[in-house]
Prior knowledge:
The protein is of the alpha/beta class. It has 2 domains: about 10-255, Aspartate Aminotransferase, domain 2 (3-Layer(aba) Sandwich), CATH 3.40.640; about 260-390, Aspartate Aminotransferase, domain 1. Helix content is about 40%, strand content about 15%. It is built from 15 helices and 12 strands. The longest helix has 20 residues, at about 260-275. The protein is globular. The protein binds ligand LCS.
Amino acid sequence: MNDDSYGMGTKCVHSGIKDDPTGAVVTPIYQTSTFKFRDTEHGARLFKGEEQGYIYTRMRNPTIEAMEDAIANLEGGAKAIGCASGMAAINLLFSSTLTAGDHIICSEAVYGPTISILQTLFAKYGVEVSIIDTSDVSLVKSAIRNNTKLIFIETPGNPSLIISDIQAISEIASSINAKLAVDNTFMSPILQQPFKFGADYVIHSLTKFLNGHADVIGGVVVLKKESEYIHFRKMSNLIGGVIDPFNAFLVHRGIKTLHIRMQRHCENAEKISTYLKNNPKVIWVHYPGDKNHPQYEIARKQMTGFGGMIAFELKGGLEAGKKLMDNVKVWQLAVSLGGVESLIQHPATMTHASVPKELREKAKITDGLVRLSVGIEDADDLINGLESGFRHIT
Ligand code: LCS
């Protein structure tokens, strides 16, 4: 299935599936921690890398490998490494690419803990950190130092949906021999493929759209170049934050419907963003498919659909937001995103509470901002469900 003549739907259904000795049409759950050697010679050869095979699930497992191959194929990357969570993937990426004395540039509009892990753990290890607005390419250029090794962007960014130009930033990175990593969680490979625009690494929280059913925590690092695989795999073995076979199976199963789920997420979000824009109780709406979105042209260049995430601000700020969130129907008040069910949440006190207030405000995460993860229910029910909440705001 690693053939570009196939469409994304076919790739979603078939990618990664291994020929199984039983003839199983899906890769089964190899729920085993360890694998038997034929004899001592065999075990020694596997450990020396003289023969390929399975040793121990932290190192390699067929069910996890099948999911990794599927994601690498969908992203157009060479290899992928499954991780225990999106944060484990981010940790693996930073640990594998940064050393004391290196400098990283990171978007200010990212999932809160991505900033926190840089400012706490990696700063403590001697990594220099610049958190900037990467939607402005000139700010990326001026943040460059002679020790810059990695630029990390999330686009669209969580939760404000600010968009960074992957191609322009990848050109800056390659001009100084630095690497570009893109958190593609909000888009999935169906709507955006950062390698096509020059990225070196893609990460995902698999917890979100790729699994899509709100029943798994997982993450992945996807590598553009096969040559970096052994280094990353060794780091993954040492850090130990690997996904387990059952969760990998569920993610792989979720991927089979990713293309049709993303289509429905996009259709529903488009309708809901229009409803919100026409709502007199709403001040502004951020949706990448909106012609008034500040980076709409960049969105059109690098995305093939505008996704299922919406951010908006209500007249009456947080107090109005609380009334809305406590009274909606169909929508559930919960963090996370990308599942079939629609969720509503308040970033300033929830997903981005760990980000210092002045940085939050700089990243346009105002106290009145409400974030929607639009699911695949019927759009009319979702609009009526929001309307139930809006009626409580006077
Ligand atoms: N990257 C993005 C863009 C995310 O939104 C998240 C989690 C992560 C990475 C981390 O992934 P995890 O470790 O949770 O699998 N975002 C969340 C959110 O917006 N609400 O709850 C979690």
